[in-house]
Design the sequence.
């Protein structure tokens, strides 16, 4: 396993813990389509706006979203770079696993071709 900076590990831990909750995953999915306010994010959920705000705070602390002020609006923004870091972390292990599977496939294929007997000549018509 590659060495990982403790700060990076803590950020990964917070991000994955934040994404473990289905409400927060739905918020991230919604924000992938564009910025939204707490009120807009709360619409599809049968929970209070305060609860949605707490979910957003968890996502903020994990570095997955940010908020800004636009006059009276306080839109929430998805941090695409944070998602890219998570994807890159997952990809390094996916690529390692794919490499192992390719090597295993090649080994199994070579063993199978060794076991298949050379085809015997086919009998001519009338011979048996």
Sequence:
């Amino acid at each position: 396993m590659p060495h990982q900076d403790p700060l990076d590990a803590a950020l990964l831990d917070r991000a994955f813990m934040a994404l473990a909750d289905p409400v927060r995953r739905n918020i991230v999915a919604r924000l992938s389509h564009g910025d939204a306010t707490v009120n807009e994010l709360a619409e599809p959920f049968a929970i209070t706006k305060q609860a949605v705000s707490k979910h957003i705070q968890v996502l903020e602390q994990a570095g997955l979203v940010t908020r800004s002020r636009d006059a009276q609006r306080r839109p929430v923004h998805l941090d695409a770079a944070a998602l890219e870091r998570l994807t890159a972390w997952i990809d390094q292990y996916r690529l390692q696993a794919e490499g192992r599977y390719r090597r295993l496939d090649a080994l199994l294929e070579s063993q199978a071709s060794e076991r298949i007997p050379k085809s015997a000549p086919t009998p001519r018509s009338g011979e048996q």
In short: The chain has a mean pLDDT of 87. The helical segments are 6-19, 22-31, 38-42, 49-61, 80-115. The CA atoms of residues 70 and 107 lie 60 Å apart. The chain is about 60% helix and 5% strand.
